[in-house]
Amino acid sequence: PPPLLSVRDLRVHFPTEDGLVKAVDGLSFDLARGRTLGVVGESGSGKSVATQAVLGLHSPARTRVGGEVRFEGEELIGAPERRLARLRGNRIAVVFQDPLTALSPYHTVGRQIAEPYRRHRGASRREARERAVEMLARVGIPRPRSRHDDYPHQFSGGMRQRVMIAMALVCAPDLLIADEPTTALDVTVQAQILDLLMELREESGSAIVLITHDLGVVSGFADEVLVMYAGRAAEHGTAREVLGRPRHPYTWGLLTSMPRLSAEAGRDLVPIPGAPPSLIHPPPGCAFRPRCAYPKEVSGPLECARDRPEAPPGHGPACHLEPARAEALFAERVLPR
Ligand code: SF4
Ligand code: MG
């Protein structure tokens, strides 16, 4: 059978006054049923835009989307809006960073959780109400039966995020996309929400795409990690490979620039120099080259400043370093700091 989600050469381009922004420019990956993929990168790396394209939500206007996004083999790019509306909130659901923008202030949380259940499952008002109460209980809202009739503003940030998760999971989706679900929350609540997602994953068997700028968040959570840079995959592999034996200099930079990971490893915090490149006029060759300390270590015919590295199909880094050289550099120059 085809993978649950298969993305091939995805491109999301939109025109601006300054030129064409190539927010995503050639991204490919597969996600199997029940697996968790962490998508990591700085803001502007294309991680949100890419996943919105998966849902057929490609704002802003005049966005051009190319490539393939297949859900159980069915092409979603260019699929009729009616078809996408039947999948969204049903078999594919999303949790956003800020539940206040995703929840309506005018309806009770119970009604908002029940709504997709009524629409997609044809449940009666009463069944949907019971289901909403059950979902509130499952995501750990105390006194779910009475909180059911409260409005979003009556909940704390962390509790609102739980409500969002209840709403996303009400139809038991095959794929849950969580876009920075804990970024707006304090550290303790972040950990609670991640634990909750892990628990629900065990129960529901949903595949999860967890989008985050924090590599620390995916460790211990994701089966696989996709590191994005300038709208493309910098490195893709199992969480063990990417976190334990990363081969892309950008991944090294992420590892040493994350306060929590550095503290755990007893390392100094080393920020990545420079800033992400323009997505309108990206540098030729490797988009990471202006910030990379290792172009001189590349042997062989390919040049960082001229040839754009491609990530190999499946797992691996998009980098011209020889694998053995990359491993040695990581061990000698990145780990000891
Ligand atoms: Fe650095 Fe070259 Fe690898 Fe790009 S291809 S990450 S510039 S070593
Ligand atoms: Mg984002």
From TrEMBL:
It is found in: Cell membrane. Keywords: ATP-binding, Cell membrane, Membrane, Nucleotide-binding, Transport. SUPFAM superfamilies: P-loop containing nucleoside triphosphate hydrolases (SSF52540). It comes from the Bacteria. CDD domains: ABC_NikE_OppD_transporters. Belongs to the ABC transporter superfamily. This is ABC transporter ATP-binding protein. It comes from Streptomyces boetiae.
